[in-house]
Write a structure and sequence with these properties.
single chain, about 475 residues, alpha+beta, Immunoglobulin-like, 5-stranded antiparallel sheet, 4-stranded antiparallel sheet, 16 helices, about 40% helix
């Protein structure tokens, strides 16, 4: 009889299972960006000065004896230099958002994350905070050494001064932000007298905390993990988008060498593997590994690499702004730029220009008078002479910053007249409601609803006139 081996005859030997601990999040490695000078660095600082002069300075400008730019949420008025916008002008906010979106699409299609590298508030304030850190604690190596050293009176004093300046700048930033919603001079008095309201205190401290935390502590983490733009930017890129690129064909194989040696004879590329491009990067990436979503296109690695190329006597441009097509096909600058301004970018640019033009024309023709007519719900009144009266409420909004006189008349019915005073006065940037009684002779209109028009005209500027439709009720 055959011997058969069954599962019962096979010994089961337990196999030890090794436990492996996996981290869901990458542990943060603090980045110490190295300071550098160059063309792109200079442009970043130009935009830092421009944006901050605009932000901090505009809040203190005066216009017509008031703050030039003020978003008065309580009074529901937005003052922008000589223009006053009301909730009815909400369409302009929508237009502004469309312009911002199209601008972002255009800049991204042309040159990637150009906004991130030069004008984003996160980048700008991180640059300022890093500059303060550099001035207090020293260059990159000195900062690394200081952080790794034990706490001493010197280390404590340096850290204290740095954080004191950071917090002071953050509080001033929060104060300026709130100053666009509460008149900044009144806000300064309230701060000095410790009489800030609860909402003003909250937003001042919240904005200051956000500035201090994002620019001082989180820095590149905001760009890498919190900013949604980093995630969907790839959908806007194509092979003709200008991006910060390492020329692999020219730079590889990389390696150190003597300055006087012929690196080509040694079988080396132009990259000396100095690591400067990594040291100056504010997000800590190595651009030589290809384009990564963490790259904010600031050009710091270009400046750093160009300085090394100059010292070695090599041609600049090992790291440069170029396109994927230009790099693969060895296109010259003329051919590259011709493809950069392609159909896609021309469409974005054309739409953007058209919307800006239409918005500018609309603002230029913006009527500084708004009228709303509401008929009283009561029944029409018949006078002793047989005339018919309807009562209306005229809501007139004067958006100009000077008192105005208006004349009201009724059209659309023969013999129609206003029983009450037809001349009205309204203060500057004010809305006021007026009761108006309109009388129409008997048998002029048919029974039921009849269309009439109210015409409100500025007595000092007859070209400013608004016509509003209304309904006149005649008893059947």
């Amino acid at each position: 009889m055959e011997n058969r081996i069954t599962m019962k005859h096979i010994p089961i030997i337990p196999v030890p299972i090794e436990e492996t601990e996996l981290a869901l999040f990458e542990e943060r490695r603090k980045i110490y960006p190295r300071s550098q000078k160059g063309w792109f660095s200079s442009w970043r600082w130009v935009l830092v000065f421009f944006t901050q002069a605009l932000f901090y300075g505009t809040a203190w400008l005066n216009w017509n004896d008031r703050q030039a730019v003020l978003f008065d949420l309580v009074a529901r008025k937005f003052y922008i230099f000589g223009m006053v916008l009301w909730p009815q002008d909400f369409i302009y906010l929508a237009v502004l958002l469309v312009i911002s979106a199209l601008s972002l699409f255009l800049f991204t299609a042309i040159a990637g994350r150009l906004f991130c590298g030069y004008a984003c508030p996160q980048t700008v304030y991180t640059e300022i905070f890093l500059w303060i850190e550099h001035k207090i604690e020293g260059e990159r190596n000195a900062r690394i050494k200081l952080d790794s050293s034990p706490l001493t009176p010197r280390k404590f004093s340096l850290k204290f001064v740095k954080h004191f300046l950071w917090i002071t700048l953050a509080l001033w930033t929060g104060f300026t932000f709130v100053g666009y919603f509460t008149p900044v001079r009144d806000l300064a008095v309230e701060v000095g007298n410790f009489t800030l309201g609860p909402w003003e205190s909250f937003w001042l401290l919240f904005y200051a905390f956000a500035t201090y935390g994002n620019a001082g502590w989180m820095r590149e983490q905001v760009c890498k993990y919190m900013c949604p733009y980093a995630r969907f930017q790839s959908a806007m890129f194509d092979k003709d988008t200008l991006i910060v690129t390492y020329d692999t064909a020219r730079g590889e194989p990389r390696g150190s060498r003597n300055k006087k040696a012929d690196y080509k004879a040694e079988g080396l590329g132009a990259c000396v593997d100095c690591g400067i491009c990594v040291q100056v990067c504010p997000t800590g990436i190595d651009i030589r590994n290809g384009l990564q979503y963490e790259c904010i296109a600031c050009g710091a690695c270009i400046d750093g690499c160009d300085q090394v190329m100059d010292k070695m006597g090599y041609q600049r441009g090992l790291i440069r702004y170029t396109t994927e097509h230009a790099l693969k096909r060895n296109l010259d600058d003329k051919a590259m730029w011709k493809r950069v301004f392609r159909t896609r970018t021309l469409i974005y640019g054309g739409l953007l220009g058209l919307i800006i033009l239409l918005a500018a024309v609309s603002l230029a023709l913006h009527m500084p008078l708004k009228v709303d007519v509401i008929r009283d719900r009561g029944m029409p009144r018949i006078t002793e002479s047989g005339d018919i009266e309807n009562v209306y409420r005229l809501q007139i909004m004067n958006t100009q910053e000077s008192p105005r006189r208006y004349h009201v008349e009724v059209k659309g019915a023969a013999g129609a007249s206003i029983v009450t005073n037809g001349n009205l006065e309204i203060g500057s940037a004010t809305t006021k409601a007026f009761p108006v009684r309109v009388r129409v002779p008997a048998k002029v209109l048919d029974g039921g609803s009849n269309r009439i028009r109210f015409v409100v005209t500025d007595l000092d500027a007859p070209d400013i006139s608004v016509t509003e439709k209304a309904v006149f009720i005649v008893p059947r």
